[in-house]
Amino acid sequence: MNAGGQEECVCFLFEGRLQGVDFTIDGREVGLYFVEPGDFCGEVGLFDNGPQPEFVIALTAVVTVMVPMASLRAIMLTHPHLFRVMTERLAFRLRQLTRQRSLLGLPDIGQRVCCQLWMLIKDAEVEPVVIQNPPTHMEIAIMLNLSRETVTRVFQALQTRQIVRRDGAGTLQISNPRALRELAQGGQSL
Question: What is the CATH number of domain 9-104?
Fold first, then answer.
């Protein structure tokens, strides 16, 4: 999906991973959010007929279904449950983008990376916490307006302190969620 363009469809993702991105005035890519299987994107135009606000790119091979907005609008008007699902998702994405924006204002880079990791955790009560298909260092760098090398240095510090551990390319284990939360909240620094 292209920013500024008038999208005619909502994209439903079945396999793979998508990312919403935009570009700074000087042309640097900024990651906004991920779209995982079972999720959708491009829904903003359903509500205001406006242009697509961001680019959506494929990070892996994907299987998607593009549903025409006109059809979804008609169904949403007669099926309140579908309308509720779409508006709840829009509210979730708005909250997610607001949190992401607040991360960019953190002056401590280690804290910024730890906050981003903390936002990826779905259930911090189970130890160790496992994040499936975590973003790459480059993807995190794009989301936080940092260099990949900087993110890698933070990960090395987290690994040295035995807070995180990679378990292959598809899994990131948070060995010490309490320590990560402390770092994310600024109670400690790397």
Answer: 2.60.120.10
